[in-house]
């Protein structure tokens, strides 16, 4: 079957745009083919700095013929409707239509529209210009006098179509003077000549011969393998960095791995700052000395050319830039540890930076005050939370006060991604307690799903205070996340609180904690914020395989704000409902709840409170059920008081047979009104007993 090969050759495409552009090209072309009724076996897209390429294989030679029946107006309809129908169907007269009958609508006209399929090259010549003109680049430009927009000037288009057993044909079309043919160009410097290609395999091989590796995944593999080997040859280890790897692979068509060096004196700067400097400015890798575990004074760069001097000039150029940038980093590192002019009386360097933040009145949010006011709130909340998490209150308060101080340092000003980390370095340098120093870095964690939560109590107290202050603050000013927008990352903050609580197995009643927060209106938003936590907890537990309805069932009891106990209840409930006793009791409890809901519409809510009158129980099944309910309630209550949810479920499981027997033998809605009421009260006792562990009415199934 025929294959399509398409290449769009241009000036350099920014590395950050290449992967999405390749996927967009594949999707737009294949979607357009499918919309026209054309199916294919597979498609792949590729990107290099100077080209986007697409291959679609297993295509038909022609678009399939189509046959469509188009329903028209009824027989005898006004002439305007008839003429509109004929025009839309492409018919010359009603003689070309047939008449069908409908028992309800009577007779109406039907046109059979048959359309012959077009040759695939004709369709491709129609599709590709549409794709190019509407391509969704994040940023694009015009050049020359034309109106075409592309990420960089588009030089040529290669487009061939045909079966592998024959010479493919060039698909001819025009896009504002850009040439379309069966040629491309190799590496800009090492093989700049024109290359004629036939189909995809031929294209890849000839590009490789012309010093172009088409597949970005293969370029990444080459870079990573060669970088590891080069480091190993020097007795060092590559510090792998996915961001640098993807960026470097998007900057070169023919990766050449080289090693450079810098002065050992720069190693006095923290490793992370050195890596951030080299990554940000030169997109290079750093290497580690396995003997010391620290960085070595070497770096690995990726060139796009096999230089005649073996890359010496390229390495020297990179060394000059890196030397200058590391000089800046060393200056920042040393300056940040010196007294801050005008704030010498404030104490240690971080205290001086904190004083600068407070004095500058930098606004955190116009409705939530300054950054200094926020720091005071976090410090107060961290101190209050310290006993709950087992931390020293004085250390928690001190760590919270210093947690944002590094935001005013030169190093974090240059490299914002080092916030927290540099705080730990500076705190250690000025002699702070180790737990306080660690908290300055760890209070930002967990930063995402793959990041662990801190476990040291001081760090946990500050991390909780930081995230809870953010949530409570934005809830207070009614700046909550919407379905599509969460500009303040409040969902991430809530998930962070959940992770901190669950990973550290903390007993942290949220309603009480919110009430401790400095905001005056904390109590007013507590219930709504708790519901938000419930939604986030569902997400967290669902990712772990738990059912969301079980979370609803536990939260449905009301007053449930201890996340750890909620999870324990959910886990125990899930195991219980997986048993035969649990499934049967759930069915009985839901049956009781349904009857009560119907009857309460007649008698009013609360009509069945107070328990059944034992003297009015006439049947053995009624008496057995009441006895079982009393025993189960007592056992379940004792188990819950001891936070033994497995025990509570075991107690409830004893209700299965009495409940089944009751519904098998007893007519609830008896003719005798007093008997009916007493039996409904017995059903209310079933609902009350099960609600000691969860709201069974919210459980699906």
Automatic annotation (TrEMBL):
Record has Amino-acid biosynthesis as a keyword = no
Subcellular compartments: Cytoplasm
Domain DALR anticodon binding: from-to ranges: 589-687
Say yes or no: keyword DNA damage present: no
The EC number of this protein is: 6.1.1.14
Please write the reaction equations for the catalytic activity of this protein.
tRNA(Gly) + glycine + ATP = glycyl-tRNA(Gly) + AMP + diphosphate
Predominant subcellular localization, coarse grouping = cytoplasm
Which Pfam families does this entry report, sorted A to Z? Answer: DALR_1, tRNA_synt_2f
Q: Which UniProt keywords apply?
A: Aminoacyl-tRNA synthetase, ATP-binding, Cytoplasm, Ligase, Nucleotide-binding, Protein biosynthesis
Q: Name one GO molecular function term.
A: glycine-tRNA ligase activity
Q: How does it assemble?
A: Tetramer of two alpha and two beta subunits.
Q: Which HAMAP family match?
A: Gly_tRNA_synth_beta
NCBIfam families linked to this entry: glyS (TIGR00211)
Q: What family name appears in the similarity comment?
A: Belongs to the class-II aminoacyl-tRNA synthetase family.
Q: What is this protein called?
A: Glycine--tRNA ligase beta subunit
Q: Name the gene.
A: glyS
């Amino acid at each position: 079957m025929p294959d399509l090969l398409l290449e769009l050759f241009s000036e350099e495409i920014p590395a950050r745009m290449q992967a999405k552009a390749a996927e967009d090209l594949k999707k737009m072309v294949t979607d357009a083919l499918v919309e026209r009724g054309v199916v294919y076996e597979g498609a792949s897209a590729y990107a290099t700095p100077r080209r986007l390429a697409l291959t679609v294989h297993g295509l038909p030679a022609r678009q399939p013929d189509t046959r469509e029946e188009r329903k028209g107006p009824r027989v005898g309809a006004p002439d305007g409707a008839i003429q509109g129908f004929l025009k839309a169907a492409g018919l010359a007269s009603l003689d070309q239509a047939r008449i069908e009958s409908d028992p309800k609508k009577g007779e109406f006209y039907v046109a059979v529209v048959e359309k012959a399929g077009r040759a695939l090259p004709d369709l491709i010549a129609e599709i590709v210009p549409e794709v190019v003109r509407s391509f969704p680049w994040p940023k694009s430009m015009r050049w020359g006098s034309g109106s075409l927009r592309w990420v960089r000037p588009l030089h040529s288009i290669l487009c061939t179509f045909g079966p592998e057993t024959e010479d493919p044909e060039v698909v001819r079309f025009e896009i504002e003077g850009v040439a379309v043919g069966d040629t491309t160009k190799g590496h800009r410097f090492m093989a700049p000549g024109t290359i004629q290609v036939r189909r995809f395999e031929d294209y890849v091989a000839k590009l490789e011969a012309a010093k172009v590796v088409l597949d970005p995944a293969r370029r990444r593999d080459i870079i990573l393998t060669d970088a590891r080997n080069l480091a190993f040859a020097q007795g060092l280890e590559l510090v792998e960095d996915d961001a640098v790897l993807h960026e470097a692979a998007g900057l070169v068509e023919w990766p050449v791995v080289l090693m450079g060096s810098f002065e050992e004196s720069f190693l006095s700067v923290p490793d992370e700052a050195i890596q951030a400097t080299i990554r940000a400015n030169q997109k290079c890798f750093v290497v580690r000395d396995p003997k010391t575990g620290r960085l070595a004074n070497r770096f690995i760069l990726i060139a796009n050319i096999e230089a005649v001097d073996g890359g010496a000039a390229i390495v020297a150029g990179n060394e000059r830039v890196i030397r200058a940038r590391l000089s800046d980093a060393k200056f920042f590192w040393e300056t940040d540890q010196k007294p801050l002019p005008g704030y010498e009386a404030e104490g240690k360097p971080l205290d001086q930076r904190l004083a600068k933040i407070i004095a500058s009145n930098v606004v955190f949010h116009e409705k939530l005050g300054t950054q200094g006011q926020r720091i005071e709130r976090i410090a107060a909340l961290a101190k209050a939370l310290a006993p709950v998490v087992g931390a020293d209150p004085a250390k928690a308060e001190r760590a919270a006060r210093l947690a944002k101080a590094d935001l005013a340092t030169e190093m974090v000003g240059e490299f914002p991604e080092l916030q927290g980390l540099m705080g730990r370095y500076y705190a250690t340098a000025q002699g702070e307690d180790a737990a306080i120093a660690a908290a300055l870095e760890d209070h930002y964690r967990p930063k995402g799903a793959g990041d662990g939560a801190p476990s040291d109590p001081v760090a946990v107290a500050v991390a909780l205070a930081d995230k809870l202050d953010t949530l409570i603050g934005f809830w207070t000013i009614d700046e909550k996340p919407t379905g599509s927008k969460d500009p303040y990352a409040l969902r991430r903050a809530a998930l962070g609180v959940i992770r901190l609580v669950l990973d550290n197995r903390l007993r942290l009643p949220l309603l009480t904690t919110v009430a401790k927060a400095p905001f005056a209106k904390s109590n007013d938003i507590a219930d709504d914020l708790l519901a938000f936590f419930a939604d986030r907890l569902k997400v967290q537990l669902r990712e772990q395989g738990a059912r969301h309805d079980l979370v609803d069932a536990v939260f449905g009891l009301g007053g449930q704000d201890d996340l750890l106990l909620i999870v324990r209840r959910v886990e125990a409930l899930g195991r219980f409902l997986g048993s035969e006793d649990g499934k049967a009791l759930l069915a009985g409890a839901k049956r009781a709840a349904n009857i009560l809901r119907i009857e309460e519409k007649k008698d009013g809510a609360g009509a069945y409170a107070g328990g059944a009158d034992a003297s009015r129980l006439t049947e053995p099944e009624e008496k057995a059920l009441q006895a079982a309910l009393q025993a189960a309630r007592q056992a379940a209550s004792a188990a819950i008081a001891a936070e033994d949810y497995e025990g509570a479920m075991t107690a409830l499981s004893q209700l299965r047979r009495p409940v089944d027997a009751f519904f098998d033998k007893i007519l609830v809605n008896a003719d005798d009104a007093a008997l009916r009421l007493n039996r409904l009260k017995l059903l209310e006792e079933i609902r009350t007993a099960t609600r000691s562990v969860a709201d069974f009415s919210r459980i699906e199934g």
